[in-house]
Design a protein that fits this description.
The protein is an alpha/beta fold and about 800 residues long. It is about 30% helix and about 20% strand. It has 29 helices and 30 strands. An eight-stranded mixed sheet has the order 14-13-20-19-18-15-16-17, sandwiched between helices. A six-stranded parallel sheet has the order 4-3-5-6-8-7, with helices on both faces. Helix 3 runs antiparallel to helix 12 and helix 6 crosses helix 24. It starts with a strand and ends in a 17-residue tail after the last strand.
Length: about 800
């Protein structure tokens, strides 16, 4: 069998003034072996998998070059042509020494800064502390390394928690780099409370797939365990990161930093944590340290390796054509002993290249870990009657791609659920939906990946989604879920989810096509008819090419059969719109500025009416494409998701799975740092804003021109509504009756502010807020009434069972079913 190897792009690599980049363009191949350790059961479960190698191109971040087409070559064609010469153990150690020698003479702190530059980092947020002083000093403009012009912008925040959320906002919203991946947000903080204050941002990032690299100081290795501000940082952060590690010496740092950025940005992105004892930040990398480290790297699996807790191991690998013969190469295994990634050194020892080979001599857990970081572009098919599985390549003209095309063509009621995995391919998604005439629903993190101005747009699906996509999801005979993991917030009661698609699967006329970058998501929530282990982009481009090929061969293939389905969509949208609460106009008596009594008409506002007016003005001005929004968590978040017309991917930056209040201000600062040309608007509630408004200090100090909308109803209204529904209106811990005067708060930081509390003045005030003072921060305090966010999928109920109006339930609701 002839397998394809895809050369793809990885880390942004910028050469510093005194180092060539650690990553440069190359193609690395490895051959498969006929003998594997503990392979039988894994192949039984995942047979017919192609061998893929992830190779990364160096990117100069300063050049705004567009991604280049990625070459594909076969093993047979590449064998002996692009593979570096095999290295015996001593040669491998010498290669390691040569690589580390590039940083000879630098301190640990200096190496970290050099690697940040190499990996394209342009801004770092953080906070000071004694344990991180050596690293902090590297960022100072007067440090000799900069010659007066630092390569990285340093921003001091009001606390470490906010620094983490700013890094998240940066990572979530930043334009993709030339390798097609998100840049990582970077945080630097101290030990002890500096670490513990970052736990929430780390957990939020791991839940929502935001790439972050967090670097924290630690008490010196010579300090007692109960030293000042010492904390078990790795133990604390391991559950909420993709990788957490404490360095053992300065010699490890080049590998540690390379691996940190690779893990954070590849596969499903997420946060990594590196713990930096203060003495090792000061340790200078000299010849002796390089020799000691390189000569001490053990062979993976040997007795010495079992007692070794360092960053790297060598893995012997036969490099012959059939894997059993020829000289033995020694690959670098970096990461945890039983959960790492293989790398090879290039021929001149200037770079390490990741080798994500699923058929190396690794255990099943490590193979699964590697596959979660390297989509194999394999389609898995499951027969609904026998549950028998087959698999094949995701490629134009392949058997299983043809079967998926036929199934899509046959479906009368298909529906696309576009998840976060579609954010890097909106054009491909639009082409696919348009060509097959399939309506598109989006998840919270995917809002904007399909332009909601298009007639096929269904808007957000799920717990607070629009009624139409919820109804149509349950009625669809084919669900095409691209880049989403079937989170419980979009499924409702799982046992009652997609009944018509399940029925259609049993009758071979529909079912579920699930596309995910992680093989571990295969059948995790929903048993798919086809599972595609790939990126959303690769899947959509393959299907689009398949459609084009078939239509060129047979023009009759251009016909579609979804017209009635789309008419049904239009009918549902008219019958079940998202409603905006309005209040009666009141006549208010008062005294004007001249002391005369007067009467004025005033109409109170709802969160929905304020967001709707903001959306209207941005649409009419043609500015929505130029906007990025952040939210906290609560009614304001879901109202924004429902009523803003989302037109661009990564336009809605919010906390999804963790539901973290207080993130909006930090997120929007990060958004502006990453998208300086965009209008960056924070839509926040008073409850969320109260948690982190100290970050106004950063906004003012750095003059970050963000727009801050506070929807103030003096309540945590989402939870208050649940208490009304499920706990007989026994309200507790949901009111904010002594909120600050937000205009005075803004004034205290020297930030311009506006105020509005009625519909009559809303238009003019909103116009000033949105379109004036583009070069400075502005805060708008909008006093609103308490209104719930509807629809709401009844807890524990099927997706179509929604509360559509704010009416009291005749029998009440089961308190045990209240949302979490």
């Amino acid at each position: 069998m002839k397998f394809s190897i895809a050369a793809t792009s990885m880390l942004v690599a910028i050469a510093s003034s005194h180092h060539a980049s650690a990553f440069a363009p190359s193609i690395t191949t490895v051959s498969t072996s006929k003998t594997f350790r503990n392979r039988a059961q894994y192949h039984k479960n995942n047979h017919n998998r192609a061998l893929f190698v992830l190779n990364e191109d160096a990117i100069d971040a300063a050049t705004k070059s567009s991604p280049v087409a990625l070459p594909k070559i076969s093993i047979e064609e590449s064998a002996g042509r692009v593979t570096p010469p095999p290295r015996d153990l001593q040669a491998a150690r010498e290669s390691t020494k040569s690589y580390l020698s590039r940083y000879k003479g630098e301190s640990g702190a200096s190496i970290i800064y050099s690697k940040l530059v190499e990996n394209g980092v342009d801004v770092v947020n953080g906070y000071s502390g004694g344990a991180v002083l050596p690293l902090l000093d590297q960022f100072h403009p007067d440090h000799p390394r900069h010659q007066g012009k630092p390569a990285i912008r340093w921003i001091t925040n009001s606390n470490e928690n906010s620094a983490g959320h700013i890094a998240e906002g940066y990572a979530k919203s930043a334009p993709k780099l030339a390798d097609g991946k998100q840049p990582a947000g970077v945080v630097v903080a101290t030990s002890g409370p500096g670490v513990t204050n970052l736990i929430t941002p780390l957990q939020d990032a791991i839940c929502d797939g935001a790439p972050m690299v967090v670097l924290c100081g630690q008490a010196a290795t010579t300090a007692p365990s109960d030293a000042f501000q010492a904390a078990p940082a790795v133990a604390l952060t391991t559950p909420c990161t993709k990788w957490s590690y404490q360095i053992k010496n300065a010699a490890e740092l080049p590998y540690v930093m390379d691996y940190a950025f690779f893990i954070a940005r590849n596969g499903r992105p997420g946060p990594v944590f590196v713990d930096l004892p203060k003495d090792l930040q000061n340790q200078v990398l000299d010849e002796g340290l390089i020799d000691s480290f390189a000569n001490g790297i053990p062979i993976k699996g040997d007795t010495a390796a079992k007692n070794y807790d360092g960053i790297a191991r060598f893995l012997p690998h036969h490099s012959g054509a059939n894997g059993d013969h020829g000289p033995t190469d020694h690959l670098l295994h970096i990461g945890l002993p039983d959960r790492g990634i293989l790398f090879s050194m290039d021929s001149d020892n200037s770079r390490i290249d990741p080798i994500l080979d699923n058929d190396m001599n690794l255990g099943d857990d490590e193979v699964a870990f590697a596959l979660d970081h390297n989509p194999s572009n394999i389609v898995y098919s499951r027969d609904p009657d026998t549950s028998e599985q087959t698999s094949g390549e995701l490629a134009v003209g392949s058997k299983l791609v043809g079967k998926m095309y036929t199934l899509i063509k046959k479906a009368k009621k298909p529906l696309i659920i576009a998840g976060q995995g579609c954010n890097d391919c909106p054009e491909d998604l639009m082409e696919f939906a348009k060509s097959m005439q399939i309506p598109v629903a989006t998840t919270l993190h995917a809002l904007g990946c399909f332009d909601e101005r298009d007639e096929l747009a269904l808007n957000m699906v799920g717990m607070h989604g629009h009624p139409t996509p919820n109804f149509m999801t349950q009625e669809a005979d084919l669900i095409i879920c691209v880049g989403s993991r079937f989170d419980d917030r979009i499924t409702g009661r799982m046992g009652d989810y997609i009944p018509e698609a399940k029925k259609a699967a049993a009758e071979y006329r529909g079912g579920v096509i699930h596309v995910d970058i992680r093989l571990s998501q295969k059948a995790a929530q929903v048993k798919p008819t086809y599972f595609v282990h790939s990126t959303g982009k690769s899947f959509l481009q393959t299907m689009n090419a398949e459609i084009t090929k078939r239509r060129q061969e047979n023009p009759e293939e251009r016909s579609t059969i979804t017209a009635e389905w789309l008419k049904h969509k239009s009918k549902l949208e008219k019958e079940y719109p998202v409603k905006i609460p309005y209040f009666p106009t009141e006549t208010i008596k008062g005294i004007d500025e001249n002391g005369k009594e007067q009467e004025v008409s005033r109409t109170r506002m709802s969160a929905q009416s304020v967001i709707s007016e903001m959306n209207r003005q941005l649409l009419e001005a043609g500015k929505l494409d130029d906007c990025v929004f952040s939210t906290g968590v609560g009614i304001h978040q879901m109202v924004a998701a429902q009523l803003i017309t989302w037109t661009q991917p990564k336009q809605m930056i919010s906390s999804g799975s963790l539901g973290t209040m207080g993130v909006s201000l930090g997120f929007i600062i990060g958004c502006k740092l990453a998208n300086g040309h965009k209008i960056c608007i924070s839509v926040d509630g008073d409850g969320s804003f109260n948690m982190t408004f100290t970050e106004l200090k950063t906004v003012a100090e750095q003059n970050i021109p963000v727009k801050l909308l506070i929807l103030d109803n003096e309540s945590q209204m989402m939870v208050e509504y649940w208490q009304r529904l499920f706990h007989d209106a026994r309200y507790l811990a949901v009111t904010n009756t002594v909120n600050p005067d937000y205009r005075k708060l803004a004034d205290a930081f020297g930030i311009k502010s506006l105020y509005v509390d009625n519909e009559e003045e809303l238009g003019d005030v909103m116009k000033k807020f949105l379109f004036e003072d583009a070069d400075k921060p502005v805060l708008l305090h909008a006093r609103i009434e308490r209104t719930p966010c509807l629809p709401l999928v009844a807890p524990g109920a099927p997706l179509q069972d929604m509360i559509l109006e704010d009416l009291e339930s005749e029998g009440g609701f089961d308190a045990s079913a209240a949302p979490s």
